[in-house]
Design a protein that fits this description.
With 90 residues, the chain is mostly helical. It contains two helices and no strands.
Length: 90
């Protein structure tokens, strides 16, 4: 067990964040679908592009908006570590 308690996101804030992420993802997916249709005049190809866009954008925005410290998506570096191995003087 982790001895330090992690702050939790309130359910209301989580729902608002999920709604915003889905709306932005749907807008971008619609734009991708329309542009694909205008370029290729193929409805199935436009739907595939929109579906791919909504999945990719929703995942990306979820990672960006993630505020739980236990689920960090960034790599934290030790301030002392410069990439070289630590050597002991003898």
């Amino acid at each position: 067990m982790d001895p330090s308690p992690r702050p939790t996101t309130p359910p209301g804030r989580r729902a608002v964040r999920a709604t915003i992420i889905l709306v932005i993802a749907c807008v971008i997916a619609a734009a991708a679908g329309v542009l694909t249709y205008l370029a290729y005049r193929s409805l199935p190809q436009a739907f595939l592009a929109a579906g791919s866009a909504v999945g990719g954008v929703a995942g990306l925005l979820h990672q960006i908006a993630n505020d739980s410290p236990g689920e960090s998506t960034t790599v934290e570096r030790d301030e002392r570590d410069d990439g070289a191995e630590h050597r002991q003087d003898r």
